[in-house]
Amino acid sequence: MIAAPPCLPPGFTSWRDMMQPALAQAFAASARGEAPAGAAVFGPDGCVLGLAGNESVAVCDPTAHAEVLALRRAGAALGNYRLTGAVLVATIEPCLMCLGALVHARVAGLVFGARDPKAGAVVSRLAAGELPFLNHRFWVVEGVLAEECAAAMSRFFAARRKG
User: What DSSP character marks residue 75?
Assistant: First the structure.
């Protein structure tokens, strides 16, 4: 979407370190019977502002994706929906709805694990950086712990098909 990401936030030595809380949220979501997507929002100082796993099934809400919930929690923590300087870390490439939420939240960056070939709106199904109508841009790092993130999703849906 925009130029290369800045340095890692304080307290982190790799993007992989930042993915761990999101991955933990994905595993927790899976244990609750939700699709295993997880997200974490980090402030510019490296503090966690919001954590979430998918909750769409539990709350009967199609907008209760991990990314949206993490952004909501971060906004509540800051008392402002504008998350300037924040980084959202997600296990799976965000969908179109979540992309819109990232734009409106004015995040500085997005780090995600696995691509979503069916609904990914950042690089897989859309080239978000090339959408001229978006009024905000952010940097993107993709492929962080991609195998682990994709495997969680594959295991979950394989089990659903069997059961």
Answer: H
